[in-house]
Amino acid sequence: MCKVDKVIKKIKNKLKGFEAGMKIFSARRNEIMVLVILLVVVFFFGLKSYFKMGEQNAEAVEEIKPLTLNWLFYTEGLALAEKENKYVLIYFYTDECSWCKKMIDQTYSDEEVKKILSDKFVAVKINARSENKVIENGEEISEKKLATLYQVSGYPTTWFLESNHSQVAPLPGYVDTEQFIPVLNYIGEGWYKTISFKEYMEKI
Predict the structure, then answer these.
(1) Domain-by-domain residue ranges, the chain?
(2) Structure pTM?
(3) What is 18-69 written as a DSSP string?
(4) At what angle do helices 111-120 and 177-188 cross, to 10 degrees?
(5) Model confidence over 100-131: pLDDT tens digits?
(6) Measured distance CA(1)–CA(114) in Å, rounded
(7) Within 10 A of 148 (CB to CB), how many other CB atoms are there?
(8) Do residues 85 and 163 touch, judged by C-beta distance below 8 A?
């Protein structure tokens, strides 16, 4: 074999090796591309899930946001109750009454109490020592006089009215959450019209 043939043979062998190397490189390149695509897909869906979880967490935070009990003035509260066909809860208190403050801080701050009041009632606060004016039966009188008209003698006292301002019943004294919730449901769901409170408590 002449030198030229030997050189050509060597070149051919090298080319075969190069082609084999290129095939391996091409196969690996394809594998790398597949891996890159998979990583991109995983990252995309992972990012989407992350933001979805963030949205769900934000919704959960919104859901557990505490309710705010909206206390209204007497005249305003009665008008709203009539308009929305809700019962009226009137809370008579005095500034110096420690049990009044306790009931506000503990009973009226309970989430279930606030939910029932928000759904079924219009809540009104009356300071029984105040000279602030309200309208009762077309006459302007003080909150102090209003407490007298409702025959309130001790504090706190809670009065319940129908939406047309008809008196339902008073609830004198401090009442804790456990005692208060059944009373609110008894009045707010209209059970007082057909059965006694004792019968209602036996029923539930």
Answers:
(1) 1-65, 71-203
(2) 0.69
(3) HHHHHHHHHHHHHHHHHHHHHHHHHHHHHHHHHHHHHHHHHHHHHHTPPP--
(4) 20
(5) 999 999 999 999 999 999 999 999 999 999 99
(6) 105
(7) 12
(8) yes
Q: What is the pLDDT of residue 41?
A: 43
Q: pLDDT, tens digit, for every residue of 141-190?
A: 999 999 999 999 999 999 999 999 999 999 999 999 999 999 999 999 99
Q: Are strands 157-161 and 167-172 parallel, antiparallel or unpaired?
A: antiparallel
CA distances to 43, 53, 107, 149, 157 from 65, rounded to whole Å, are 33, 18, 18, 38, 29
Residue-level length of the chain: 204
Average pLDDT, the chain: 83
Question: Which two structure tokens, joined as six digits, stand for 46?
Answer: 């992972």
Both tokens of residue 141?
Answer: 């009188």
With respect to CATH, is domain 71-203 assigned 3.40.30.10? yes
Give 155's DSSP letter: S
Which amino acid does the sequence have at 30? N
Closest listed residue to residue 66, CA positions, set 121, 124, 122, 108: 108
